[in-house]
Write a structure and sequence with these properties.
It comes from Saccharopolyspora spinosa. InterPro entries: ACX-like_C (IPR049517), ATPase_NBD (IPR043129), Hydant_A_N (IPR008040), Hydantoinase_A (IPR002821), Oxoprolinase-like (IPR045079). The N and C termini lie far apart (about 55 Å). The strands form 10 sheets. Strands 13, 14, 15, 20, 25, 26, 33, 36 and 37 form a 9-stranded mixed beta sheet that branches. Strands 3-2-1-4-11-12 form a 6-stranded mixed beta sheet, with helices on both faces. By secondary structure, it is α+β, with helices and mostly antiparallel strands.
Length: about 700
């Protein structure tokens, strides 16, 4: 592969003065491409996603974007990708055939789980079936105590006796997860080595290589998830790397992971579970950076795509993070941006429930066939169709590349409205009101339910449909304002442009005494050494400018769950930090309770120079509108001016109603609202009496 100075192939935090940075985010409907150029400008491009072969849309989009810029692939010095392959593999249950080897007596660990129903009052509620089936689960006689000491040694002969049985099962991946391996992984690694040497499966994974934390159910579930998605993610990234090489792109392929940082394609193939929240993390990281740029203290990141809405809380420029969560009903134990996802997007389908009431989502028309107005064979009314019929969308999207079929959407809406006993206008308004209520509940989930006053929050609205709904959400929730970034439709790709390389390391500590500073420091030093070695390997030896954050998981003695806070050698300072964090999260603290340490963490990052886009020249006054069209707001039609967003002046308030169009999205400003473009190109939306 050809290399050039400053390229991703030779480093991660050094860049030439002439190179291009590219970020590609694959969504359910569109694949978004952002190209950062040396002069500070950012070029954006969108192509339709190709779910059956996502890499085809990635390469096609890059080729088209470079052609539009008259640029050569050889000038790409950084290439970042957010992928939905892992997520879609899990959602569609099309992953690998996974086998599990565990400690004798614990073969039903994944089936038993928490012994609780997902929904307490829903008698028929069921947890998803384990991804490692009972008939593909084997036991070995061994035992490690919770403190890491050996209670019963491994019998190598017993493990070898399992080889033929496991090999005959024809599994794609074998996960080895032994009891208390987080405290001592010697047994687990020995079994994995024996099975790997015997060639029982193409891949053998030791669970502690994926998650080295206590809680056997979550740790095993995370490792099995990794095994389930690994073959598909691995083969996808191999294909993509080859196609980019054939195209002549010299840059190394970096992959967005769930924690908001980047890992190499090599690491992503091994630790594929880290990409389960890949795409949505980019948008949150971008929103956090923009919040810092604009000096916004509390921001709700609001990313609406074709199938879902991803919502996150950002405080003082930092997104909330979590160390454990759940995806599709399966526990996931690893650091990730704390995002609440709901089934509400531009492709969400409107339907009638058994009582005749109007419902919208969570099912979606997706990329294929998509909304009726896309003309791809869609037959069900979607949120996008409602926007079109209410005048919020014009005759086309993507700068005229996607023509919208209003006639087909209106014909189907007439039938649907008749079923509801409404006229077309009221039915379309009803679709938007229902989806607004759904989205509002999602916003409250990450704000009000965490003790945050929504009246102090700014909505950062992006995604292809975010700017269409920002106006409704500001009014529905009483938010201070909404901010729409310069390129909302490709915000996730924009966020990835400046994402740092990052990896997280965690280990159990040999004590539960949070005041045992020397013992805790020793574990943190070991983690820091591992982190530095990882960064050096990940970047080919160029980890200049890396930072290491030392963190610990603490809880009051007797609590079941912990909070992560920065490490402080002083027990008094550590206690103050934990009490303050506990008070912020739960509304109280307990200064008299004994403090217990659960785990030590080290986060290693390599930041990159920010690719802040040049604002460019703006007209000195409000231009004449491109056109006017009838748009329906609150039950009445308004003759509404339509502008190109790029032609709106900076610093001059404009009163709604108005529509601002751009390649990647459409901004709606309702009557009684005011918008203003700032010096960075961000559009601020407020109520007229608050402007």
């Amino acid at each position: 592969m050809k290399q050039q100075p400053g390229s991703g192939a030779t480093g991660v935090n050094t860049f030439s003065a002439l190179g291009l940075r590219i970020a590609v985010d694959t969504g359910g409907t569109f694949t978004d491409i952002a190209v950062s150029q040396p002069d500070g400008s950012v070029f954006v491009w969108k192509v339709s996603s190709s779910p059956s072969s996502p890499d085809a849309a990635v390469v096609d989009g890059v080729v088209e974007a470079l052609a539009e810029l008259s640029e050569s692939p050889e000038r790409v010095e950084r290439f970042v990708h957010g992928t939905t392959v892992a997520t879609n593999t899990l959602i569609t249950r099309t992953g690998s055939r996974v086998g599990l080897v565990t400690t004798a007596g614990f073969r039903d660990l994944l089936a038993i789980g928490y012994q609780s129903r997902p929904h307490l009052y829903e008698a028929t509620s069921r947890r998803p079936a384990p991804l490692a089936a009972p008939e593909l689960t084997w036991e070995v006689t061994e035992r490690v105590a919770a403190d890491g000491s050996e209670l019963r040694a491994i019998d190598d002969a017993e493990v070898r006796a399992l080889v033929a049985e496991i090999a005959a099962a024809s599994v794609d991946v074998v996960v080895v997860s032994l009891l208390n391996a987080y405290a001592s992984s010697t047994h687990e690694r020995r079994v994995a080595d024996l099975l790997r040497a015997a060639g029982v499966a193409p891949s053998v994974i030791a669970a502690t290589d994926v998650s080295a934390e206590m809680r056997e159910f979550e740790r095993t579930s995370t490792a099995v998830l990794n095994g389930y998605v690994q073959p598909k993610v691995g083969s996808y990234l191999e294909r993509l790397e080859k196609r980019l090489t054939d195209l002549g792109v010299p840059a190394r392929l970096w992959v967005m992971q769930s924690n908001g940082g980047l890992i190499s394609a090599r690491t992503a193939r091994e630790q594929s579970v880290r990409t389960l929240l890949s795409g949505l993390a980019g948008g949150v990281i971008g929103a956090a950076r923009w919040a810092g740029l604009l000096g916004l203290d509390k921001v709700v990141s609001f990313d609406i795509g074709g199938t879902s809405t991803d919502i996150a809380l950002i405080r003082a420029g930092q997104p909330d993070e979590m160390t454990s969560g759940e995806i599709e009903g399966y526990p996931l134990r690893m650091p990730a941006v704390d995002v609440h996802t709901i089934g509400a997007g531009g492709g969400s389908v409107a339907w009638r429930d058994s009582g005749g009431g109007l419902r919208v989502g969570p099912q979606s028309a997706g990329a294929t066939p998509g909304p009726i107005c896309y003309g791809r064979g869609g037959e069900e009314i979607t949120v996008t169709d409602a926007h079109l019929l209410l005048g919020r969308l014009g005759d086309s999207l993507l700068g005229g590349r996607l023509m919208l079929d209003r006639t087909a959407a209106e014909a189907r809406m007439q039938d649907f409205a008749g079923e509801l006993g409404l006229d077309v206008d009221k039915a379309a308004e009803g679709v938007l009101r229902v989806i607004t209520a759904t989205m509002a509940r999602g916003v409250r989930k990450v704000s009000v339910e965490r003790g945050v006053d929504l009246r102090e929050c700014t909505l950062m609205a992006f995604g292809g449909a975010g700017p269409l709904h920002a106006s409704d959400l500001v009014r529905e929730l009483g938010l201070r304002s909404a901010v729409i970034p310069p390129h909302p439709g490709i915000a996730s790709a924009m966020g990835m442009l400046d994402a740092p390389v990052r990896s997280d390391f965690v280990a159990a500590v040999p004590t539960n005494d949070a005041t045992a500073s020397a013992e805790i420091e020793s574990v943190l030093d070991d983690l820091a050494g591992r982190a530095e070695r990882f960064l050096a390997e990940e970047t080919g030896g160029n980890s200049t400018g890396s930072t290491l954050d030392r963190l610990v998981d603490l809880r009051y003695l007797g609590q079941s769950y912990e909070l992560t806070v920065p490490w402080a050698p002083s027990p008094q300072l550590l206690r103050q930090a934990f009490d303050r964090t506990h008070r912020e999260r739960y509304g109280f603290d307990d200064p008299d309770a004994q403090l217990e340490i659960v785990a030590a963490r080290c986060t290693a990052t390599i930041p990159v120079p920010a690719s802040t886009e040049a604002a460019g020249d703006r007209p000195p006054k409000i231009p004449a509108p491109l056109a006017k069209r009838a748009v329906r707001f609150e039950g009445a039609w308004h003759d509404t001016p339509v502008y190109l967003r790029s032609e709106l002046p900076a610093g001059i308030p404009i009163t709604g109603p108005l529509i601002a169009e751009q390649l990647d999205s459409t901004v709606v400003i309702a009557p009684g609202q005011v918008c203003r473009v700032d010096e960075h190109g961000f559009l601020h939306l407020t109520a007229e009496d608050n402007s």
